[in-house]
Specification:
The protein is an alpha/beta fold. It has four domains: 2-19 and 26-123, Beta Barrel (OB fold (Dihydrolipoamide Acetyltransferase, E2P)), CATH 2.40.50.140; 129-283, 3-Layer(aba) Sandwich (Rossmann fold), CATH 3.40.50.261; 287-353; 417-479, no CATH class. Helix content is 49%, strand content 18%.
Length: 479
């Protein structure tokens, strides 16, 4: 065992010093790192490691750096451009992978890392990647070209059914067909999951084509199964099934899984249905619609006949009414009615003209009676007398009004005159210098020269004391 360890790790004096246990000669970091690099790279070449990708970084150079980890440890990894194989494009954080490569030491940092040469996806990711690769390859070959798709027959009388005899798909398909339209079914039981299922499905499609080639009419083939995981549906993603569908001379309908499930067989088939039940409905759609059309045809024919009869009846009524309007008796009746209306209009015109003439005569007589000369003279005489009386009375009345007006104005003027105020015992006091009438004792200052006007005459004075309010009744105040 000691020899085995030595050959792998070189533990003797080369790495840990001389076996005698004497003092170890100092080494540089570079020397020690190079020895570790030689030992590790020699003992851990061509390894396969499983884990989860983390901290994935893709450089502009095309090289990728990331960490491979599990619950207990992590390992630095480098994937150089051009390495890794077809699954390289699926690398991302969280992907579960199996990496192949050599364990190396990166001397500038003193870190060990896995230099990856191969990438394998694990679980669903690996299946999805295989699905995408096969889909891209077959699509490039033209197997999915829409120009290859053939229309389904409108009324399939015999169909080939490829599915499991015990699955839910066959029950769903038969239930829909029995309810809508049941053609003859040529059943090819197969396994729809597990090892060898793809080969069984491809063989069943080939046998149905041989059956049709022997002169037995076969309108279409339905390849179907119920839902499941991607692993359960994987046999429908096998290349052998896709090529069998593409090589079929009979139109093929693929109905695998649920509405969200897509398989390679769906792309290769002439028509993809979301579910087995939906496939059965699509296959029988034209037949059901035709049956409904036939069932409703009698009613539509009856409606059309009645509509035609009503149209002809309406046309006959219009012709009858037109003939009645063109009958000679109708024209004679029209002329008689017009004559009656003309006579009535003439009668009303004569009556209206007579009324107008009688009214004009009465108005003329009234105007003639009003225009007699004696009456007009009497009226003019009366008007003249009234005018003469008015002319006589007008000057005296006007003069009397003016005299009264003048007396009234004179009285009002006397009452408003300052002299009238003085005549009642009041006096007016002015500033002797400016001649301004004084109305407020607060305006008078001590020693100010004053001029007082009485009812008769004026006198001057000098202010000795002022008060804003009167202290007693003065003789000049009006009681």
């Amino acid at each position: 065992m000691a020899r085995s360890n030595k050959s792998q790790w070189e533990f003797d004096g080369d790495l840990f010093g001389p076996p005698g246990g004497g003092p170890q000669k100092p080494e540089s970091v570079t020397e020690l790192t190079q020895k570790l690099k030689k030992s590790i790279e020699g003992g851990f070449a061509n390894r396969r490691v499983a884990g989860e990708i983390s901290n994935f970084r893709l450089q502009s150079s095309g090289h990728a750096y990331f960490v491979l980890k599990d619950a207990g440890a992590q390992l630095a990894c480098v994937l150089f451009r051009g390495q890794g194989g077809p699954d390289r494009q699926s690398l991302r954080d969280g992907a579960q992978v199996v990496l192949s490569g050599d364990l190396t030491v990166y001397e500038p940092r003193g870190n060990y890392q896995l230099r990856v040469s191969g990438v394998e996806l694990q679980g669903v990711g690996a299946l999805q990647a295989a699905f995408e690769r096969l889909k891209a390859r077959l699509s490039a070959e033209g197997l999915f070209d829409p120009a290859r798709k053939r229309p389904l027959p409108r009324f399939p009388m015999r169909i080939g059914l490829v599915t499991s005899p015990t699955g839910a798909a066959i029950r769903d398909v038969l239930h829909v067909l029995q309810r809508r339209f049941l053609p003859e079914i040529v059943f090819e039981p197969v396994r729809v999951q597990g090892q060898g299922a793809a080969e069984e499905i491809a063989g069943a499609i080939a046998r149905l084509n041989r059956f049709a080639a022997q002169g037995e009419p076969l309108d279409l083939i339905l390849v179907t199964r119920g839902g499941g995981s991607i692993e359960d549906l994987w046999c429908f993603n096998e290349e052998v099934v896709a090529r069998a569908i593409a090589a079929s001379q009979v139109p093929v309908v693929s109905a695998v899984g649920h509405e969200i499930d897509f398989t390679i067989s769906d792309f290769a088939a002439d028509l993809r249905a979301a579910t087995p039940s939906a496939a059965a409905e699509i296959i029988t759609q034209d037949a059901v619609e035709s049956r409904v059309f036939v069932q409703e045809a009698a009613g539509r024919l009856a409606d059309a006949a009645w509509n035609a009869i009503e149209l002809r009846s309406d046309a006959l009524d219009r012709v009858s009414k037109g003939l009645a309007r063109r009958h000679p008796r109708r024209r004679l009746e029209d002329r008689a009615q017009r004559l009656d209306e003309a006579v009535e209009r003439l009668r009303r015109s004569v009556q209206r003209l007579a009324r107008e003439r009688r009214r004009d005569l009465a108005e003329g007589l009234q105007r003639l009676a009003a225009a007699r000369p004696s009456a007009r003279l009497k009226a003019w005489t009366l008007a003249l007398e009234q005018a003469r009386s008015g002319l006589k009375a007008a000057p005296a009345a006007s003069l009397d009004r003016r005299r009264r007006r003048f007396a009234d104005l004179a009285t009002r003027l006397r009452l408003l005159s300052p002299q009238a105020v003085l005549d009642r015992g009041y006096s007016l006091t002015f500033d002797a210098e400016s001649g301004r009438l004084l109305r407020d004792a607060a305006e008078i200052r001590s020693g100010q020269l004053l001029r007082t006007r009485l009812q008769k005459g004026e006198f001057g004075s000098v202010a000795t004391r002022t008060s804003a309010t009167p202290e007693a009744d003065s003789p000049n105040q009006e009681p």
